[in-house]
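User: For my dataset I need records formatted as: sequence, then structure tokens, nothing else. Please produce one.
Assistant:
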Amino acid sequence: MPASELTGWRRLGIIAGGGTLPLRIAEAEKAKGQEPFVIRLSADDALGAFPGADLSIAEFGAILKRLKAEDCDAVCFAGQVQRPNFAKLRPDWRGAKLLPKVVSAARKGDGAILDVIVETFEAEGFRVIGAEEAAGNLKIGAGPLTEQKPSTEDMADISKGVALVEALGPFDVAQGVVVRRGFVLAVEAAEGTDAMLDRCAALPDDLKGFEPGQEGIKIGVLVKTPKPGQELRVDLPTIGVRTVEKAAAAGLAGIAVGAGRALIVDRAAVEDAARNAGIFVYGFTPDEAGGA
């Protein structure tokens, strides 16, 4: 059976940012008998093994031209891309034409920027697919990933975290929050999950909400779930080994993500890291989280 019949597209173009997710998608495509074409927005030696081009996000015309020349009919956005400094961008002609629309969207938040980019690719005839569709079973299912499970108090923190994400979603922030026994330690904004967890780790004990005798005990939950109205094909919450390590370093009891609404990179390694750290990774359902 031709690979295109297995995937639904002739050839996949991967718009690759940082992290290991783009590599996992490229490897999954190769395993299906397809050779993806990778637009490398961030340098990654491992991705150099695949056909591709090193381009900046501002070279939009060159990106479209290369993808079409390589017979790509579908694109997948994967990996971390820092918000650009618009004053320092050196766009090509097509990028310059798109830039005013992107800058206008940027005032509303990163989600609005992604909406503009997705619409532009679709207008050029590309099918935009999610990472989980390209790489197979990357989505986290319901329940615990390992033997460790959230307590009743942890579930209450998860519910509060989800409510906070839903309340702040219209402002295009808070894909991730940290809640500790009802006390909100941090809300993810432009800095990203890793930096948010670093902030939590650096907080003094009195600001972490510790009660007498709780020092050193793992308490609190990192909650990651899509914001209301989020473009799920290009910006699903993603966790990996680094997330587990930083959550443990912040003294948290675990990580909770929306079941079927978040991705996990290197599942076996994440399971091992969670066991070693003694923390849970849990996929919560809408009923558990109060309708999220």
